[in-house]
Q: What sequence folds into this?
């Protein structure tokens, strides 16, 4: 759809990539990245077949759309009441607005997506809309997908995004969301793979005053994974909630780079990022919070809690607070720990075997985030997926 | 109730244990028979909780000497979970908070682990709900606590009630209650003590670690032991606890000094 609109974007993206080259370790956001894997991703041919595995039926009442980067996702699709597709003119006007506002130009995964995505799903949401599920899945190769959402003033949407991959494949995903005044978006992301595929997902969200955005992300099983949620409260006075769970095993590397900026007063942020790292894996969290001078009375809290499940796993966690306004509450904290002996012993002293006690504790640690996913996530059994990957 | 011919449940002989290479227990001797209630008292830091954790199998404590037999079996050959399944119960002085793990689920898994060992059928979610509601009455606990994470955000007294609820569910053979009375208000103390009394039979035994006579007013001990410097320094009947109320622990220093000189 609307590939004519995308043509100039692709051109710009290709030019930007040419100019930027591949990221290198001297660049702070890529300092810890395994660049060989990134190079492999950038060399993948575009995917042209659907995911071989069949999908579970969606939850009753949920509208599902499957996006693979080559079929038209709107073909034969009945959109729920309140959701309409943007026409070419509207799209041209809206496209890239949020990216500019969020400062995403020259960000490598964004330009990469610009260069690669052949189509875009662009939707407008009005009023209270039934839950929507976007499944992003394709067979071998690079699956470049792009979605744009305009959530109008006072509109409410529950959006579940599922990113799936198997084998030698990768996702490049770019999401732009504009939330009008008093709009509400409850957003879930479940990105799950089998350890061989890679993920680069950039989520740019622009919030007008009194809007509320809540993102729950569960990311697990990527050879090289990168999730980049960026939120800008354009005039402050909005609510942002970010809850993230990143699970790594084997030799996987998964980076979560979040950035929240308050371009006005009285904004709120409640953020929890959890990483569970096993095997020889490497989990990275970078949490930027930007509170400029006119963002007085901002109230932000960021907590990063990390669990090392093996001696060879590694976690790097870094808050990046830039606070210029003086009347601000900004709490942050980070912990890296192992499973607590005392917790394990307590369970064992009640007859629960060590292995089962460990599983109970891990379930508990994951559940804190997973329980926040929209209801549509159920059919994907997120907790079971994560627990299975931890057991293997 | 003292019956010399009752089964010897717990037989502790010359037990030594260290934590981080620091010796804490230095020769504990104690025999507990079925039907008995023992009180263990003693100053802060004398080793009471260490004894309880060694018996339950906490990995931080290393046994460096002596033996403990539980119903004739070498206790230290058993993993902590195996001890629990066989009926050793430790009510923690500081119950552990476990965020994200539902109390109900935890209680069910643990109850079933013990039941399986006793040859009883596993309780499914529904059967367990009925079962646990019966047991809640023992400690007069609000069912709302079942829906919360294990001990998370529970007040001190609520945590202790949750411990006794677990005891009621697990039906232990030897229950070691480490300061279950501390942090309880007067009513809660009666309720918890009443629960412990209800659960006591002639086939099981209770080891109460406490600092206060007020618990022993509610649960009458057959024996009172005073621990000092990692050993049991003196053993008597319930009158010893009353005596301690009067004299305090000053005599302990004299006795230890005298023993050291000897
Ligand atoms: N895990 C540990 N690490 C270091 N020292 C410990 C540990 N556990 C116990 N100890 C030390 O062992 C000694 C005995 O402690 P314990 O907890 O057994 O005393 P207690 O008799 O239960 O005291 P209280 O009446 O205060 O509960 C103390 O000096 C304590 O500091
Ligand atoms: Mg103690």
A:
């Amino acid at each position: 759809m609307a590939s004519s609109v995308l043509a100039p974007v692709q051109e710009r993206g290709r030019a930007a990539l040419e100019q930027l080259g591949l990221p290198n370790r001297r660049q702070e956001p890529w300092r810890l990245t395994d660049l060989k894997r990134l190079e492999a991703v950038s060399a993948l041919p575009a995917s042209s077949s659907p995911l071989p595995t069949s999908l579970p039926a969606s939850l009753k009442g949920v509208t599902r759309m499957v996006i693979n980067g080559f079929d038209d996702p709107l073909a034969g699709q009945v959109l729920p009441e309140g959701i309409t597709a943007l026409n070419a003119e509207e799209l041209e006007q809206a496209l890239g607005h949020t990216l500019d506002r969020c400062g995403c130009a020259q960000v490598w995964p964004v330009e990469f997506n610009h260069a690669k995505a052949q189509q875009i799903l662009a939707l407008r949401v009005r009023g209270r809309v039934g839950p929507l599920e976007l499944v992003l899945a394709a067979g071998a190769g690079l699956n470049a997908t792009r979605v744009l959402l305009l959530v109008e003033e006072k509109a409410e949407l529950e959006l579940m995004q599922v990113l799936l991959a198997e084998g030698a494949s990768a996702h490049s995903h770019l999401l732009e969301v504009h939330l009008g005044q008093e709009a509400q978006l409850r957003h879930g992301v479940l990105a799950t793979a089998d350890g061989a595929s890679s993920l680069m997902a950039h989520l740019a969200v622009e919030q007008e005053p009194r809007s509320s955005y809540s993102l729950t992300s569960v990311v697990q099983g990527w050879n090289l994974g990168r999730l980049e949620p960026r939120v800008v409260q354009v005039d402050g006075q909005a609510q942002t909630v970010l809850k993230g769970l990143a699970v790594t095993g084997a030799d996987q590397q998964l980076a979560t780079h979040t950035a929240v900026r308050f371009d006005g007063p009285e904004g709120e942020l409640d953020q929890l990022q959890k990483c569970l790292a096993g095997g020889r894996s490497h989990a990275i969290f970078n949490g930027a919070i930007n509170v400029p001078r006119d963002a007085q009375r901002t109230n932000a809290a960021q907590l990063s809690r990390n669990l090392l499940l093996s001696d060879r796993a590694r976690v790097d966690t870094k808050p990046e607070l830039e606070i210029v306004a003086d009347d601000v509450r900004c709490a942050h904290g980070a912990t890296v720990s192992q499973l607590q002996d005392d917790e394990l012993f307590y369970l064992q002293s009640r007859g629960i075997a060590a292995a089962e006690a460990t599983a109970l504790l891990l379930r508990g640690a994951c559940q804190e985030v997973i329980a926040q996913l929209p209801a549509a996530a159920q059919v994907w059994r997120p907790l079971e997926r994560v627990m299975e990957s931890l057991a293997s | 109730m003292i019956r010399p011919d009752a089964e010897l449940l717990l037989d502790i002989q010359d037990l030594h244990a260290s934590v981080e290479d620091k010796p804490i227990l230095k020769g504990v001797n104690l025999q507990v028979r079925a039907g008995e209630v023992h009180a263990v008292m003693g100053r802060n830091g004398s080793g009471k909780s260490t004894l309880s954790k060694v018996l339950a199998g906490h990995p931080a404590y290393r046994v460096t000497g002596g033996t403990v037999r539980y119903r004739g079996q070498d206790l230290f050959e058993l993993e902590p979970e195996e001890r629990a399944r066989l009926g050793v119960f430790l009510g923690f002085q500081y119950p552990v908070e476990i965020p994200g793990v539902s109390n109900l689920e935890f209680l069910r898994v643990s109850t079933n682990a013990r039941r399986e060992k006793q040859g009883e059928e596993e309780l499914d979610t529904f059967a367990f709900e009925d079962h646990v509601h019966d047991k809640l009455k023992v400690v007069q606990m609000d069912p709302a606590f079942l829906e919360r994470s294990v001990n998370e955000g529970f007040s001190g007294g609520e945590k202790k009630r949750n411990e006794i609820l677990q005891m009621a569910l697990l039906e232990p053979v030897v229950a070691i209650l480490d300061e279950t009375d501390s942090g309880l208000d007067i009513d809660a103390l009666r309720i918890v003590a009443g629960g412990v009394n209800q659960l006591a039979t002639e086939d099981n035994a209770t080891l109460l670690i406490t600092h206060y006579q007020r618990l022993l007013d509610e649960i009458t001990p057959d024996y009172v032991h005073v621990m000092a410097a990692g050993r049991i320094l003196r053993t008597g009947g319930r009158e010893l606890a009353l005596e301690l109320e009067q004299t305090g622990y000053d005599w302990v220093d004299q006795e230890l000094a005298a023993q050291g000189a000897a």
